[in-house]
Recover the amino acids of this structure.
């Protein structure tokens, strides 16, 4: 199938999930390094009895963790691709829910500001890293991401790692560096009411919630741990160690209540701690956040 226009870039595993299928309210750290929706041409499909899924494309290019703008300000393009394999998908075995793959992107970025250099946020949506104002993107950006998931009955586990390397320059001094930032996460879930877990979420409760009856929908518990580490070569020339953190580590617990096939209530508690990010080399204060969401899908 050929897609033309704005679509999800085929790099981040959790980013490629539909919004009604993600187990946590906010995406994890690897999604901060993966591109969001981008404008371009994408060829995607599957073969080998649907056990191999692929996507390749040419895009305008966007910064880590964000959607592309409606223009291509530097006239450079980005190439991205992904291959994901589920070898035992069609077997009635314990490995039928195992999938793994590799994704990546490559392109040049040349410019200053938020359309060229990223700002990284915690799962609580607080910004904890940005480059100095004078720094510009000036050269190649490459990303690569090994990724996998495993679903078996009520249990699900998703894991991904991503590296995003960008060449940057400080015009005032002429300093140059290729900054390689990295992130990873593990996200686990268990459906207490016995429905099958899956990459596309809990499809439909066995007993949808109904007022005045015994139906209470499906209940799922989730847990996540992840880290995002900034390349030490970013400090102190390209980023201020007294204002931004070098590493963020986050854990989260949550509960999902699927009342029906298209309505769920979600509650998440997330705690993030930092290495650096405060004056005189001190650590930034821990972030503690509680989120709720009511979500319809149709």
């Amino acid at each position: 199938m050929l897609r033309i226009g704005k679509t999800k870039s085929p790099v981040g595993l959790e980013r490629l999930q539909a919004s009604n299928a993600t187990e946590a309210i906010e995406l994890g750290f690897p999604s901060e390094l993966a591109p969001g929706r981008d404008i371009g041409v994408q060829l995607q499909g599957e073969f080998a009895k649907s056990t191999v899924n692929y996507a390749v494309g040419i895009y305008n290019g966007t910064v880590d963790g964000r959607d592309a703008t409606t223009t291509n300000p530097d006239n450079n393009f980005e190439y991205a691709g992904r291959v994901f394999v589920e070898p035992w998908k069609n077997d009635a075995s314990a490995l039928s829910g195992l999938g793994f793959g590799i994704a990546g992107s490559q392109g040049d970025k040349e410019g200053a500001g938020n359309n060229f250099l990223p700002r990284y946020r915690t799962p609580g949506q607080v910004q904890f890293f940005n480059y100095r104002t004078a720094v510009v993107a000036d050269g190649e950006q490459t990303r690569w991401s090994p990724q996998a998931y495993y679903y078996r009955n009520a249990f699900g586990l998703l894991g991904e790692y991503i590296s995003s390397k960008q060449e940057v320059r400080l015009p005032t001094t002429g300093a140059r560096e290729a900054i390689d930032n990295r992130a990873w996460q593990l996200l686990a879930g268990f459906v207490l009411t016995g429905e099958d877990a899956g990459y596309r979420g809990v499809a439909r409760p066995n007993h949808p919630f109904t007022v005045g009856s015994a139906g209470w929908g499906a209940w799922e518990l989730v847990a996540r741990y992840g880290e995002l580490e900034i390349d030490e070569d970013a400090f102190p020339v390209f980023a201020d160690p007294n204002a931004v953190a070098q590493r963020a580590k986050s854990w989260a617990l949550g509960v999902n209540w699927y009342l029906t096939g298209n309505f769920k209530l979600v509650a998440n508690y997330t705690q993030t701690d930092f290495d650096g990010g405060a004056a005189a080399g001190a650590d930034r204060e821990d972030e503690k956040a509680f989120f709720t969401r009511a979500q319809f899908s149709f």
Remarks:
- DSSP finds one helix and 14 strands in the chain.
- Residues 2-296 form a domain with the Porin fold (CATH 2.40.160.10).
- The radius of gyration is 20 Å.
- The chain has a mean pLDDT of 94.
